[in-house]
Structures are given as structure tokens and as C-alpha cells.
Amino acid sequence: MNLLQTLVNGLLLGGIYGGFAIGLSLLLGVLRIVNLAHSAILVLGALVYWQLVAGAGMDPLLMILPVVIGGYLLGLGVYRTVGVRLRGQDDSTVMLAFFGLMVLIESIAIVTWTTDSKSVPLGYLSGVVHLGPIFVPVARLVAAALAVALLVAVHLLLTRTMTGSAVRGLAQSPDVARLVGIDVPKLSRHVFAAGVALAAFGGIILALTSTFTPQEHVRWLAWSFLVVIVGGLGSAMRTLVAGLAVGVIEAFLGTFLAFQYTYVALYVLLAVVMLLRSEGLGGARERAV
User: Fold this and answer.
1) How buried is 186 (Cβ within 10 angstroms: 0-12 exposed, 13-18 middle, 19+ buried)?
2) What is the pTM of this model?
């Protein structure tokens, strides 16, 4: 495989990783919530998407919006039942609560869909685009393009709109945001729901590009944390750049190392980055989206 093909594969993979991580980055950056259930929600979104496309025979592109809306409604429900009760709690309590939510979602997914591997029938997205010596699977190209478009849209929302200004104010200081008239509880609820919806969108990207099972979601949680930690919590664009970097590194490592060693190397990278960023996940307290 030539270097240009490897680079293209890495960039596509990196765009997909950015899509995986943006929901986690939003909740951590704005609400200071370490959502350990992120990957379980991601795979739940993938399973619902699979059910609609493979089970009900629906169009794979038309089913994106219903799954995202479903994720948003799920987020509203989770925040009303769990999130409001965690206000003011210490980090360990919050993480324990979301770990419990992760286990609950995983258990429901396994009972409902079993542990068998799932793959979405791609239909008209199953072709391959040839650009000279470079070939790109259409489904992966569409998934990466959707992820990049979403990250750009989130960036524009946060930086160019009044709602984005309110979200940034909430991220920097909820008390000050409240003083200037922002309805902090309402905005927090919708930001949380948006984070869950973005996780469900990540599940759609996963379903378009890979086989998946309910019990293997923790792998995607590690990848999402890696992207968030490398990029920090500064912006959607930094999440995209971090995703691209991780994707390219993985693609080039895969040309020199066996499959299993590639993932070991990336986990080592995760550990190194966490050591270099000495504030770790607690850095969310000092960062803003």
C-alpha cells in the first residue's frame, strides 16, 4: 500500500474519530461531566440505526435524523432522571452514576439485540471511488464527510450564534451566566441532550463503517477519550484536528505493526498524553468550549 493511500485512509478514519468524540468533548467541556456511558450510547445509536436500515429496510441516509432526534430525546430523559440529581456532587459520584448508566444500556442492548456482530447493509453506499491509484469506500467517505460537516456546524454554532455565546458562558462560569440572565438549568439540560444526540450520531458513523457488537463499546470510549485529551476541550475544530491526527497515526502504525500491536501503541499514546497533560480530565474545570 502506498503512502498516499495510507494518508487518505488515516484522514478518513480521523474524521470518523472526531465524530465519535465530539459528544464526549461537549459534555466534558461545558458541563464538566465525564460521561462514561458515551460509548454505550454510541453503540445503542448504531443498533437502533441497524434495526431501522437492516430490519425495517429503510434508507440509510434518511434514517440519520430520526436516530439523532431519538438520541436527543434520550438525553433529555436521562438528564431529568439522573443529571439533575448529580448537581453539586463530587466527580467520583458523577462518574459512578454514569458507569451504572453504561452498564444498564449495555445490558439492555445485549438482551434486545444479543451479542452477535451487526453490520448495516449499505445498498447504494457500498461502492468504491477510484481516484487514480487511490481507492475510497463510498460509505467511509460519506461517514467522514458527515462527521466533518457536523463538527464544522457545531463550531459555527458555538462561535457565531447567541446560543453558542450562552453555552460558552455556561462553560466558563455558571454563576456569572446566571447573573446575566441565562437560564442555566434549561441550557444545561439541552446541552446534555445535544451531547447524547452527538453520541448517537457517532453510532451511525460506526454502523456505516464497521461491524459492531453491544459488548465491545468500551473500545470506542477509549478512542473518544484519546481524541478529547489530545485535542483538549477548546473547540470542535480542535476535536477534528485531534481526530485526524489519531487517525493518521493509526493508519501509518498499521502499515508497520500487526493489528493488535497498533492498538497497544495507541493505548500507550493515550497514557503518555494523559501524563503530559498533568491536569488530566480535571482540566475541564479550567477549559471552555
Assistant:
1) exposed
2) 0.91
